[in-house]
Amino acid sequence: MTAKEQLVRFCYPSDPEQAGFFAVGQDGTEDEAREVLQAALAVCHPVEPLPSSGITEEAIHFMLPDGDEFRPDGVPGTVFYETMSKLRSITVDFLRSGQRVTVNGRALRSGRNYPLPPQRNDGYLIEATGGARFTAV
C-alpha cells in the first residue's frame, strides 16, 4: 500500500486533526505523503475494527508465529490480550475461585480448549481475571 493510500485509508476527513493528512493522501504527491506518514499514523486510526474494539482500549497485543506459544504471567485483576494470529487452542491452568479466562466472551474451562469460539473482527480477545494463566498455541 502506498503512503497516499494509507493516509486515505486510515485518516478521517471529518476529524480536524486528521483532515490535513487525508487531503495529502487524496491530492498530494507520494513524496509529500511519505513525509507526513509517520506523524499521520500517530493520530489516524485504522478503519478496521480489532478484536478489542468496543470492549477495551487496554488490550495487550501479541502476535504468534506458527508453532510458537504465548504464555503470559498471571497478574491480579483483569488483563485483556488480543491477537490477529490464527490460534489452534488455548490451555488454561487450574482455575481457582475468582479466576477465569474468556475468549471472545466465551468462558473457557481448565485444560485444553478446542475448538475456540469464532473469531471477533478477524482475531481473538482473551480476558484473564484474578491471576488466571493460559497458554495460546
Structure description:
The protein has 137 residues and is of the alpha+beta class. It folds into two domains: 41 residues, no CATH class; 77 residues, Jelly Rolls. It is built from three helices and eight strands; from the N terminus they run αααββββββββ. A five-stranded mixed sheet has the order 1-2-7-4-5, with no helix packed on it. Helix 1 crosses helix 2. The chain is elongated. The two termini are 30 Å apart. 26% of the residues are buried.
Quick structural summary:
The protein has 137 residues and is α+β, with helices and mostly antiparallel strands. The protein is built from three helices and eight strands; from the N terminus they run H-H-H-E-E-E-E-E-E-E-E.
Give the topology.
Layout: H1 3-10, H2 19-27, H3 30-43, E1 60-61, E2 78-83, E3 90-92, E4 100-103, E5 106-107, E6 111-113, E7 124-129, E8 134-136
Parallel strand pairs: 1-2
Antiparallel strand pairs: 2-7, 3-6, 3-8, 4-5, 4-7
Helix pairs in contact: 1-2, 1-3
Summarize the main sheet.
5 strands, mixed
- Number of distinct helices: 3
**Helicity, in percent?**
10-25%
The strand count comes to: 8
Distance linking N and C termini = 30 Å
CATH topology name of the largest domain, in short, is Jelly Rolls
State the shape.
elongated
User: What fraction of residues sit in β-strands?
Assistant: 15-25%
Q: What is the mean predicted local confidence, pLDDT?
A: 93
- The spatial strand order of the largest sheet comes to 1-2-7-4-5
